[in-house]
């Protein structure tokens, strides 16, 4: 990433339905959760919102909670460190060391979906991924 100047990136995880954005590490060492916006917080919130609002699973009115956090009330986006701190995250590295705007997409409640569920996961995320990539030109 330092050699080739990407401007937009996403890393894909499973286990929740939410989009997180930097910063992922709290500023206060002993806090497990703390809002830590970047100077580009508005841009990151926009990018996360583009993904979350076009994701079929996240946008569904019939969606269920994955665990105990109700991310739907937050628009299915959250500042990473305000959810849980992740020292040395890829989001933070990309932003701080390469000038690439990166988000984390938690794609599914299931951390390891069965192969039979992958077509549905693709349908849930296809449009979101395309719209997210289109933001490069915005």
From TrEMBL:
One of its GO terms (biological process) is proteolysis. Belongs to the peptidase M14 family. GO terms for molecular function: metallocarboxypeptidase activity; zinc ion binding. InterPro entries: CARBOXYPEPT_ZN_2, Peptidase_M14, Peptidase_M14_domain. Residues 1-136 form the Peptidase M14 domain. Coiled coil: none annotated. PANTHER family: CARBOXYPEPTIDASE X1-RELATED (PTHR11532:SF43), PROTEASE M14 CARBOXYPEPTIDASE (PTHR11532). The keyword Metal-binding applies. It comes from the Eukaryota. Its cofactor is Zn(2+). The keyword Glycoprotein does not apply. This is CPXM1 carboxypeptidase. The active site is at 106 (proton donor/acceptor). It comes from Rhynochetos jubatus (kagu). PROSITE patterns: CARBOXYPEPT_ZN_2, PEPTIDASE_M14. GO terms for cellular component: extracellular space. Keywords: Carboxypeptidase, Hydrolase, Metal-binding, Metalloprotease, Protease, Zinc.
């Amino acid at each position: 990433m330092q050699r080739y100047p990407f401007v937009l990136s996403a890393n894909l995880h499973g286990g929740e339905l939410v989009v997180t954005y930097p910063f992922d590490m709290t500023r206060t060492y002993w806090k497990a959760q703390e809002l830590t916006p970047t100077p580009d917080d508005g841009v990151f919130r926009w990018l996360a919102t583009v993904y979350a609002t076009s994701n079929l699973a996240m946008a569904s009115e019939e969606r269920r909670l994955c665990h105990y956090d109700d991310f739907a009330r937050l628009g299915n986006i959250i500042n990473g460190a305000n959810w849980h701190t992740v020292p040395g995250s890829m989001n933070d590295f990309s932003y701080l060391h390469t000038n690439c705007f990166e988000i984390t997409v938690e794609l599914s409640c299931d951390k390891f979906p069965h192969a039979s569920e992958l077509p549905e996961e693709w349908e849930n995320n296809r449009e979101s991924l395309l719209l997210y990539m289109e933001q490069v030109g915005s």
